[in-house]
Please model this.
Amino acid sequence: MRIDTIDKETDNQNGLFKTDEYQIKYWGYSRSVNELLFMYDNDEIVVPDLQREYVWNHEQASLFIDSLLRGLPIPSLFLTEIGNKFVLIDGLQRLYTLSMFINNKKYHTWKGKTDHFQLKNISEIGEKWRGQTFEELYDGYKQKLMRSMLHIIEFTQLSPVKNYSSMYQVFERINSTGKILSPQEVRNAAYFSEFKDYLNNLINEEGWQDIFEGYDERANDVQLILRFLSLFELFRMYTRGSFDTKSIPLKRTLNEYMAIYQAMDLGLNVSEDKFPIFYRSFRGAAKSDKIENDCDVFKRTISWISSNVGKNVFKNIKIEHDEYKYVNRTHSNIFEAIMIAVAYAIKEEKSFLNIENWEQARVATLRSVDFREYFGVNTMNTKNFVRRVNLFLEMFTGERIETQE
Model:
């Protein structure tokens, strides 16, 4: 599937928010292997998505254990604390290797083997423990390994105090794989929550798969759904007169929508100074009700669109010799406008027009002067955003919402 992310996730528009500058406090300390494994095995250390893939081979894992048994220094683990959990930003390979070796876990990734973890029998490994499992080690070496101290660097955000936005920035910049992460991959790692799990499962909906026929390996499909849910929330706030900023800071909007669910999961204070965009719409709401509502509105919306409009619904067109052809990728602004228009019509129980061919009506809308005006420039200007939704709302229902001047 191809997704054209028209609006790059930069929040440099004139409006309510400016780019944050951070005051970060960080410090170093050491914990024993025994203490770290207790925390890891009891879920006190949370492993985010971007850290979850174990990639070390047998030799790398063996050399790491060998380094500790020899008393050699190893790189620091990188943690941050949220609520009563520590988030592991860098260090999964080391921590999982220790857990696998000391807890006598079977491994499944090294040439199809399912044996218990024995240190590799190669010359680089100390001969006193070469080829042994943890249980086979001399007791003195077991104690030495368990008492080994691992250095930790921990950080916390001191300012701005109103949000947790540095989490996204840190995950965006620090990862041990060397892979450049997509914005949604970073978000999935930084804002772990029950909502994140539901969000990532919505791409399996039948109506979604009827249109997209597959999955995006960089999570751009998940980002589209998040974009719909968060911007639909803003659209409904706009209709109630509770959102009146001149422009929509896209990255901050998507981040805050996931962050506020994370805060609810962790029992943190959900206040207006920390979540200025969505505080009013989440105030007093039960997390389970909000998640249920998000899932329901997405499922009903994508089901109606899949059944009535068809596979090309989110694609733009190009005109050649007065004939149109589909551009073979998803246009994010068309996607959000159509999804929000249909969701709003369903939510407000509007009557859909009795049109035999919705796709022809959609193409006519895409060829209109209004489409070129509202989709061409300043796409995250609030008025243009509302006008885009209105364009398709009128197509579907014959109605528009009143725009604020």
In short: The chain has two domains: 23-159, 181-397. The CA atoms of residues 321 and 367 lie 14 Å apart. The longest helix spans residues 287-308.
